[in-house]
Amino acid sequence: MKKKEDFSTWLNDIIDRAGILDIRYPIKGTYVWRPYGFKVRANVLRILRGLLDETGHEEVLFPLLIPEEEFMKEAIHVKGFEDEVYWVTHGGLTPLNVKLALRPTSETAIYPMFALWIRSHADMPIKVYQVVNVFRYETKATRPLIRLREITTFKEAHTAHATPEDAERQVEEALSIYKRFFDTLGIPYVVSKRPDWDKFPGADYTIAFDTVLPDGRSLQIGTVHNLGTNFSKTFDILFENTQGEQEHAYQTCYGISDRVIASHIAIHGDDKGLSLMPEIAPVQCVIVPIIFKGREEAVLRAVEKAEKALKGLRVHVDRGEGTPGSKFYHWEMKGVPLRIEIGPRDAEKDTAVLVRRDTGEKKTVPLGDLSGSAAAALREMEASMRKKAEDELKAMITEAATLEEAARILREKGGIIRTVWCGEKECGVEIEEVLNAKLLGTNNESASGPCIHCGGKGRHILHISRSY
Amino acid sequence: MKKKEDFSTWLNDIIDRAGILDIRYPIKGTYVWRPYGFKVRANVLRILRGLLDETGHEEVLFPLLIPEEEFMKEAIHVKGFEDEVYWVTHGGLTPLNVKLALRPTSETAIYPMFALWIRSHADMPIKVYQVVNVFRYETKATRPLIRLREITTFKEAHTAHATPEDAERQVEEALSIYKRFFDTLGIPYVVSKRPDWDKFPGADYTIAFDTVLPDGRSLQIGTVHNLGTNFSKTFDILFENTQGEQEHAYQTCYGISDRVIASHIAIHGDDKGLSLMPEIAPVQCVIVPIIFKGREEAVLRAVEKAEKALKGLRVHVDRGEGTPGSKFYHWEMKGVPLRIEIGPRDAEKDTAVLVRRDTGEKKTVPLGDLSGSAAAALREMEASMRKKAEDELKAMITEAATLEEAARILREKGGIIRTVWCGEKECGVEIEEVLNAKLLGTNNESASGPCIHCGGKGRHILHISRSY
Fold it and tell me: In this complex, do A150 and B63 lie within 8 Å of one another by their Cβ atoms?
């Protein structure tokens, strides 16, 4: 097993070893979801769908292929994606009349249909989402779950509204949904409004969630875009407003990808392997019988009793061959939150030993009370894993007043620099160059003091980091 | 609304009108799943996944793209698909070094990984499945849910085994899973072993499920293939057997597509619209309050009571504007199995009127007993919808002893001809030509009497039909 301090190697190793992905598929940047990984992914999607459904979003599914003409309509959008779009040019041995893009994201597939669906203000809001595969011909180094050519898990939501205020409210709702989502998964985040030159191609503005991985680099894990009327003008999404006039719809979109799973693994895993929060663990409790010759029966009876008590949780009893030690090692590597050991002495005393994956903490509890103790242990784990991750992120956010200080922090420790910025693009771009880092953007706190670069009046709190 | 006797127009109309698909997407043979249709699809997939999971299948997810070299390895397989494969040739503005196929099916994506996963007989059986989009450049006329260029809902299972007997048993298990699946959805079927010249490219043999649509043509809705060692030889899937020798793995695969949803709609719908079985209906009961001025309160109290009583079912209360009549019309069109009407007289007497979508049958029941009555009505509906569909299919299977008789039946009534065949390819191909129909294949009953074409010794019961 690799050590987590060698982060990049460790991450690929554990993704492979724990059965999340097979990384040997013969196309760069595309991977195979194996059964265990697929179950984690399904649990993550269940949470995300739940949050979207309960806020009135409806799930839909649009075609993968986009005709060249539609794709090329929105000039700024095209500019942002043209280098990384895969093109289908042949059907069988026949060249196609119209080239087809593999969606890199679905604005240009969805919005022509919005134009058909929307006639009047009463047809809005429209709030739809889909969970699909999208494609980007990445020229940078690809990485499992982080930088992909086929993003297999892209949840994209698209909305249309009758007023700019309603679109603003939708941005707020999206932010609040994503906060709840990341909180549930124990992934801490920093929210930044991206600088204008780094917003989504075609958006009025972009608000992004970034987390920090153990190597000190930040990772964008979610984005929310206010599209204003940019796309509705391009795709003729018009509606009759309450005054009986034709008006362009106000739109937002927001997305989440496989990266949430990368973040969860990266943030909570350790030298022993995965450590999954109970909500998304395919197995929440593993029961390991500790058998001694001649005393099997009492132990197996106790194990059955324990299994029954834990009904309602996702439980696995490891009845396989192999020593208890090798089983412990295996299930720790798989990230199972709670291990329950039952040996002859436990059987005799009608007890079991609970072991937490995150802390290794052991606790002997009465079998009769196992259901309550296990549930309590899982609840405590969730809270303490979340708290630990949040504390770690906090420790990786460092204030800096000068570029020298910022450079030193980025060099020595990484993470996110918190500083003050005048808001001018010129200054921003130079900060990026000098620090060889990225402006994650600004938050909505008020700033005082001078800009870290030009010394002029500071207008924004700025987040900077080296990022994936 | 279109009449069902004009079947093809009716089907497209109801798919559109009921909000299953939007058929206006600007690429031929690709369509948009709208929210209501997506919910039907999700319910169908829930049933299918349940059946696969409980029989030890594990869900996985493979990449969409297949490198040309892998795709081209299995010559017979390639031959079967080369005219209909979409090819990606460019990433951004750059021509790719290796052309990439959009999977038309995933054997050539999955089996190279099986070769890595399988070392010993102890690694098997492997039973995996995925639910994905696949692509076929159809040159025939495309139709929503029936003949697609993007098949959005392709469930493909792939298995590997250490003995041919185990692969045979897997074919039996797959058949039994699909039977339960179609039975649950009320889709009647005929099972046929496809003639050798119509089997899946690369299979030893193919067993297929066909149903008959209201226009008398048959539709293939599921297939099970015994692949023998054809693919394992091509992709070097070798294992050490119990004698310590290297041996090629024995494989099967089996698939289900969007067509099950087409079949359900086509078979159970009528001139009023969809008629969905309760298991897959997004709304199982709609409650329609019948309001008269001045007596609203009593009705709304009764409606709330009804809603509470039906907790556990998927219930919608139509509190919208509009007359009761227009609401009835709307929800009938949407195929909601059970309508519950509550008017002032019902409120007074503490009763409700249940109306079945399939038969229109009405029944007044006490509100206090609504939960039980609704559940019973839904159960009865399931059984009677299933029975009705099975009877209809039976009536569309007709015996014929001569080609003239078969031709007349196909002309006048369509459906499936049941007859006797000698088993010779020559005869089979000529039967297809003479009847302008397709040999669905043979069943495993024993045959007696002469071959319908050559008059020679009959060896098989043969199914023939005009098919989609």
Answer: yes
